[in-house]
Amino acid sequence: MHGFYGMVPTTLKNKGVELLDQGKWAGGFIRPSMLKSEIDFKKMAGIYYGEIKKLYGSDIHYFAGDPFHEGGNSNGIDVADYGKLIQTEMQKYFPNSTWVLQGWQSNPSSKLLSKLDKSKVLVQELFGENTQNWLTRKGYEGTPFIWCTVTNFGEKSGLYGKLQRIANEVYKANTSEYSIYMKGVGTMAEGVHNNSVLFDFIFDMGWHSEKVEVTNWIKSFVTARYGTNNKKVQEAWQGFISTVYSSFDKLQEGPNESVFCARPSTKVTGASTWGTRARNYDVDKFKEAVKLFVSASAEMKNSTTFQIDKIDFVRQVLSNKGEYAYKDMIEAFEKKDLDQFTKTSSAFLSLIKMQDDLLSSNEHFQLYSWLKQANDFGKTSIEKDLALKNAKMLVTYWGGPNGPKSTLHDYSNREWNGLMRNFYLPRWEMFVDDCLAKLKGENTTEPDYYKFETNWCTKPDLYKPTKIASTQVNVLVEQILNK
Fold it and tell me: Is 469's pLDDT higher than 90?
């Protein structure tokens, strides 16, 4: 449950409550304020925890809450005393409960931890696949912690997971001088509907006392996931763990993004602000592994998980092809070669359509599956409209007062059927039309992508896919892998 840690609505200042302004989050969102007065804090903590007990009872053992997380303003506050106040009130109403903090960037600060009873604190080391805060912070200055990964930011599409590094780091932490503080292994993912191998792997790590070698571990995973021990599939997975699931050194927030999902530009670096299009693996080697995997289709026709992974792996091959198609298109534009740009842009757009067709064949890759849940969530027409709009916003421009300049647009981008053809494709068509006009010497107005995005999110469409025959799927797969 969320504990009370002094964060309150900014409008409480209108009630005469002394507050400490916290500035803004990414995208321009106003951060809630922090209470300055200890008297106000104790009063509100008592009311908050009293209501928690009325609603949920007293059998609650873990409370979250991160003051000054990702910035904020602590001027005029003794952070050590503030942390002690938070814990004291928590213990007053829920004795022996544990305060759970996020080990992310410089959080929790050494000052915040300095006056706490650390036996009643648990830090979740968030970004273990890339950082070693548990080590640099010396076991968070002697605080119990769980080794965790984020693995995916926004549940973006893409095959990714530094499996061997995860195994190495878990073993390292569990055999280090700080192992007495390590209480488990977990994940703080922002989405789990992808890369199933990653989550199976992470949650298995807590059961091993010896360091795990992924090349050996993967064999039992393959048999368990597909229900049979197929030689081709086993060999293909060895190819996957040496490519998309390899442990490259570069720090990266989630999977390699698809240029298809990016807000159009001649200089796309990533679909999201903190994402990347860079492929840190041999895409040709990966493609060969996918071919081998797909070659087992007849033998694996009764395995639902095989069908899901087959679409996902082929999707990634086509996404990788998009990188080359984008490069060709931009080079033609920069050379002012109208004929070549016409050809390359047409090829680029056709790949987006092909991706949409491929993904229509499985419900796990359909925008409709996502939107139907939102629509069904509402009980009234107003609730349904709001839930549907929010579901669309989340996977597109996200929102925020900064409008088109928000750094959060496409943060949760997805290669999904329905989203490819009805959102990403029209955006790129706007870009292509604008480039064609420029190459022809015509006067143009820069496309208003943000206006398109916000308008799209207000439409009532659920984008139910047209059912595609298995023979069509096979033809598409063949085209993608062999042309």
Answer: no
